[in-house]
Specification:
It contains 10 helices and 8 strands. By secondary structure, the chain is an alpha/beta fold. Helix 7 runs parallel beside helix 8. The longest helix has 19 residues. It is globular, with a radius of gyration of 17 Å. The protein binds 1,3-dihydroxyacetonephosphate.
């Protein structure tokens, strides 16, 4: 399976960062065996999509509804109209900051696929949940309740992002990543049939140029969702290079 490396810029970036995005687009062009893209703040999507046609731009959230009285929200169709080809839903920062439930996330994923966007559904346990030995139960519960099982598997990716690894410089052991990705794969196949073998399972949480090769070599790690190290080409390019290695 071709690896997928997606940068999540979170609440970073203004028009002053268009040249930085340009450098990332250029770096991505040097690694054509890797699928890559950037999920930008909504305010930058249209500009980036028009400046860099052919490069995959995405959003970081969408509303479950097509339109209506939801002040401040953005629908999947609006992201698509602005030039996005994908969207992240259920990021742990939204699950905690905005109190999004698994049911909310499922609704957003459904809306995204309905609008023709690829969707990356995020799951992951907190440190307390891992310490209590509940990591796998929590993550598989999120898969069961967040992933729609009637939409097909095309355009669907899962990102396993342990909450305690995000932005901390801490990464689970290779064995723990392998065990979780295997468990997710098994559950996807149980729920979605053979199509579950084709869903890319990304790892996210402090992935960088120094650890990407090791993480991406783990079976069922089909790519990465990158926060801090996606903000500049200098940091992002080594991850793309690691993903390009056979
Ligand atoms: P960091 O790569 O900064 O740890 O963030 C990961 C993440 O949350 C991507 O969605």
């Amino acid at each position: 399976m071709q690896k997928l490396i997606v940068g999540n810029w979170k609440m970073n970036g203004t028009s002053a960062d268009i040249p930085a995005i340009g450098k990332i687009v250029q770096a991505a062009g040097g690694h054509k065996s890797v699928d890559s893209g950037l999920c930008l703040p909504a305010t930058l999507i249209e500009r980036a999509a028009s400046e860099f046609p052919g490069f995959a731009i995405g959003g970081q959230d969408c509303h479950a509804a097509e339109k209506g009285a939801h002040t401040g929200c953005v629908s999947a169709g609006m992201l698509k109209d602005a030039g996005a080809g994908m969207v992240i839903v259920g990021h742990s920062e939204r699950r905690s900051d905005q109190g999004e439930s698994d049911a909310d996330v499922q609704g957003k994923a459904r809306a995204a696929r309905g609008a023709g966007l690829d969707v990356i559904i995020c799951v992951g346990e907190t440190e307390a949940e891992r310490d209590a030995g509940k990591a796998e139960d929590i993550v598989l519960g999120q898969i069961d309740a967040s992933v729609p099982d009637d939409l097909g598997t095309g355009g669907l990716a899962i990102a396993y992002e342990p909450v305690w690894a995000i932005g901390t410089g801490r990464v689970p052991s290779g064995g723990d990543v392998a065990a979780m990705h295997d468990a997710i794969r098994k559950r996807l196949i149980e729920r979605l049939g053979q199509g579950g073998t084709q869903v890319r399972i990304l790892y996210g949480g402090s992935m960088n140029g120094g650890n990407a090769a090791e993480l991406l070599a783990i079976p069922n790690v089909d790519g990465g969702l990158i926060g801090g190290a996606s903000l500049s080409a200098d940091k992002f390019e080594p991850i793309l290079a690691a993903a390009a290695r056979p």
